[in-house]
Amino acid sequence: MNNPSTRDLVITRILDAPVAAVWEAWTKPEAITKWWGPEFYSAPFAQVDLREGGVYVFAMRAPEEQGGVESYTSGTYTKIVPMERLEFTQGLSDKDGNRIDPAELGMPAEFPNELHTTISFTAKGTMTELTITESAWEMSQMYVYSYAGMQQSLDKLAADLASA
Question: Nearest to residue 134, comparing CAs of 123, 126, 143?
Fold first, then answer.
């Protein structure tokens, strides 16, 4: 049954890079740390166990003027089709990947404990169409912030791919 108060967050972006480069940007820790996080944030750490059932942990550091705090996102890969599709869970965690209730970090009640994310990679000539779907967000300000943050992260990804 559909819940009218939730919706999927869906972002589609055409990146001027082949699928192999975009796939690597999402699956190689040294590539992830170049672009993960919204504008002005850095990604000091990424750990990836790229197999179904494998766990990932990504760190994000706020700019100094916002306190320089590090936060972590982790999850489990549930489906991997190389160069085509990644499916995984995601939620807030500590640096070791242990899940943390968002309320413990001062997040609003509507911030999800866990999301299911699907990323599809589709070749469009020498470019890649990337579609990211985060399932069942509650309609709230956090949905808007997440959408904006992912768009900014993808801007950084596009710039990194263009400089490669």
Answer: 143
Residue 59 has which token pair? 């760190």
Return the number of other C-beta atoms located less than 10 Å from residue 14's C-beta.
12
Q: Which token pair is 45?
A: 């750490």
Is 52 exposed, middle or buried (CB count within 10 Å of its CB: 0-12, 13-18, 19+)? exposed
Tell me the residue type at 10: V
Phi, then psi, of 55 in degrees rounded to 5 = -110, 145
- Encoding tokens for residue 134? 């985060």
- Look up the pTM and report it: 0.93
What is the three-class DSSP state of 153? helix
Tell me how far apart the alpha carbons of residues 19 and 127 are, in angstroms, rounded to a whole number: 7
Q: Among 86, 81, 35, 85, which residue's Cα sits nearest to residue 58?
A: 35
pLDDT in tens, 10-65: 999 999 999 999 999 999 999 999 999 999 999 999 999 999 999 999 999 999 99
